[in-house]
Amino acid sequence: MTPTDGTEVQVLADLMKLALHIITAAAFGIPFKWTSSAPWPNHQLSFYQSLVTLLDRLFSILSIPNFIFQLPIHSIRKSKNAYGKFGQYLTDIITREGKVI
């Protein structure tokens, strides 16, 4: 989509980011910056990067048997990595909330 001044607008990417912003803020209490977010301490990917990669590869994560994830195929390893990293974030969120209560 192009506005009247000729610049390109990434509507789908912006809508996905907006939806993720709302979901993560409502479900996990984690706001993230619109432009970028840094990884939390002891994390390699940011929360946003891990969530987007997980959602992008969700079908392969759910449909591929676990032993396949051990193969040296970059895309399969990236799927497993995103799944693991997002799991670490969820564990950290639960731990953090447990300390608050």
TrEMBL record:
Gene3D superfamilies: Cytochrome P450. InterPro entries: Cyt_P450_sf. It comes from the Eukaryota. One of its GO terms (molecular function) is iron ion binding. This is Cytochrome P450. It comes from Planoprotostelium fungivorum.
